[in-house]
């Protein structure tokens, strides 16, 4: 694998990908990976935002409305960063780097715009935005969701670990930036 040191990790990025991608197979394993990828699609943002808002309005003891506001703003930041970086860097995806025969591919094979993982960025902005205003059970679900989506992107053969980590960091940063901006505008961030 060629690329900058911060991406290749001295070959560790490729080795970790292969370990995760080939860790298991079978109906349940493959479907968990496919479902994780489907659940982390940023096209579901309107659904997740509406569900979070409905939950916050109906059960404010489970989710604070300020957290939903952070999500609404954080997603826009996340989307702008990811959509700007992906075409600019245009890193190749695992099937192009390693060859289709070496990668366990679930769903359509993807070859370009590997860094960062948009799915991971979306899952982590969702988690980080809602976490401070969530009940402990919802917090646990949000963490599991974000980790599931990140794992699924490697399991389906779409992203290297560096892509997932980069997406996760962008999602966390986007939520933090949205919360800071809203705080400066006078909207206090909810904490539980």
UniProtKB/TrEMBL annotation:
TM region positions: 63-85, 121-148, 160-179
Molecular-function annotations in GO: sphingosine-1-phosphate phosphatase activity
Keywords (A to Z) from UniProt: Membrane, Transmembrane, Transmembrane helix
SMART domains assigned to the protein according to its UniProt record, in alphabetical order: acidPPc
Metal-binding as UniProt keyword: no
InterPro entries in the record: PAP2/HPO, PAP2/HPO_sf
Domain Phosphatidic acid phosphatase type 2/haloperoxidase: 68-179
One Pfam family this sequence matches: PAP2
Protein name, UniProt field: Putative phosphatase
Organism: Thiomonas delicata (Thiomonas cuprina)
Source species taxonomy: Bacteria, Pseudomonadati, Pseudomonadota, Betaproteobacteria, Burkholderiales
């Amino acid at each position: 694998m060629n690329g900058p040191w911060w991406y290749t990790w001295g070959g560790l990025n490729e080795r970790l990908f292969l370990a995760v991608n080939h860790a298991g197979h079978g109906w349940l394993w493959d479907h968990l990976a496919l479902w994780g990828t489907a659940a982390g699609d940023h096209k579901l943002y309107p659904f997740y935002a509406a569900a979070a808002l409905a939950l916050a309005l109906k059960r404010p003891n489970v989710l604070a409305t300020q957290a939903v506001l952070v999500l609404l703003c954080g997603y826009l930041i996340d989307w702008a960063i990811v959509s700007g970086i992906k075409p600019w860097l245009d890193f190749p995806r695992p099937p192009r780097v390693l060859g289709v025969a070496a990668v366990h591919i679930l769903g359509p094979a993807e070859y370009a715009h590997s860094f960062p993982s948009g799915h991971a960025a979306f899952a982590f902005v969702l988690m980080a935005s809602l976490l401070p205003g969530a009940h402990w059970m919802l917090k646990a679900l949000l963490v599991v969701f974000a980790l599931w989506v990140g794992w699924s992107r490697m399991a389906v053969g779409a992203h290297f670990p560096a892509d997932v980590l980069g997406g996760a960091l962008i999602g966390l940063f986007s939520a933090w930036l949205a919360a800071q901006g809203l705080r400066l505008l006078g909207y206090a961030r909810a904490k539980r």
